[in-house]
Design a protein that fits this description.
Elements: H1 15-22, E1 25-30, H2 46-55, H3 68-74, H4 76-93, H5 97-115, H6 126-132, H7 143-146, E2 149-154
Antiparallel strand pairs: 1-2
Length: about 160
């Protein structure tokens, strides 16, 4: 009886290669340069406006109203699980589809947070409510909210 043994080579996943690949990709949530310009042509762009609202401005009597950080905190467990899966796939295949899906999910949740009247943000002052006709903080025309998105940055 004759025995035949076939040897096949499987490429090994090298830890250094995985670390290098993972250290060269970021999922960024916010307002990219392309979405920064305001339709009204104002002197401040959407990204600067979001930052101003995030940290507040005592000089302009604007209280801090962060949106991205509380959204991530609220969905931390889900985001962590999905990020692990996405990074695993990306490290093995280079496919960023799950990273893109995660970016889309987080940016949509930030928009929902802004639209939620129970989001816990400091309410508008009576003067602001009278001027814009709404008590919902951060929403006037919706331009700022709608400019929030994600970017996959590969370095």
């Amino acid at each position: 009886m004759r025995m035949v043994m076939k040897v096949t080579k499987r490429p090994l996943i090298k830890p250094r290669d995985v670390v290098n690949r993972l250290s060269k990709v970021d999922v960024l949530i916010g307002i990219p340069q392309e979405a920064n310009a305001r339709e009204d042509g104002g002197p401040i762009g959407n990204a600067a406006l979001l930052m101003l609202h995030t940290v507040g401005s005592p000089v302009q009597n604007i209280p801090p109203r962060p949106t991205i950080q509380p959204t991530i905190a609220k969905h931390k467990r889900f985001i962590t699980d999905k990020l692990k899966s996405a990074m695993s796939e990306y490290s093995k295949t280079g496919n960023d589809g799950k990273l893109r899906a995660l970016g889309m999910y987080i940016s949509s949740q930030v928009k929902e947070f802004i639209n939620d009247p129970g989001n816990g943000l400091t309410p508008n002052s009576p003067r602001t409510i009278h001027r814009k006709g709404s008590a919902l903080p951060l929403v006037d025309t919706g331009e700022l909210r709608n400019s929030i998105t994600y970017v996959i940055r590969k370095r």
